[in-house]
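hey so i finaly got around to running the thing on TetR/AcrR family transcriptional regulator from Lentzea indica. pasting the sequence first so u can double check i didnt mess up the copy paste, my clipboard has been acting weird all day
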Amino acid sequence: MGHHGWRGNPPGTEDEARRRIVDAATACLDRAGLAKTSLSDVATEAGVTRQTIYRYFPRLADILSAVAIAGVEEFAGRMERHLTSFGSPAEVAVESVVFGVRAVPDEPYLSLLLQAGEGDFFTGAVTSREWLALGARILRNVPVDWASAGVTTEEDFAGLAEILMRLFLSFLRYPSEPALTDDELRKLVRRWIGPALVSSAS
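ok and heres what it spat out for the 3d tokens, dont ask me to read them lol
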């Protein structure tokens, strides 16, 4: 079942096994950094074989994504608090993109995915089901009149989150030349995203 080893204390569930691998990876990254962390290092830290690691995480990129998700709750809370200062769905959408572009590079675990250098590391994480669900949850928790913009169902929130996260990802991975200021980025996103979130009654 992939529970061989584990320093004599095998996990009781698949979820616990994954959590312990993520904890081991986090310890390796904190100690040695991304450049000096391999799947073998994570396996040694967890007390299992590489084959056991592969059972739960086929690639190092998958572990990095899991580490980032495990550490993202504080970031999500800060984003939610920031977005509550804006009063309309359009402004919340715009500011979510600006906040993400500016804040993610300074986040200790989220930035790991950027440091990995391979574009698919970060892209794969941000467009995964788990990350899109997180984006939808952040939007849903911001107390604006989403219904006035036609955003009412879980599918609506998920779709809006995916569009905004893909937009944020594009600006983050491929910044404009010359670089946009916050106000310039805000103006650009508002011009093209804002009309989709304005009440048809206004």
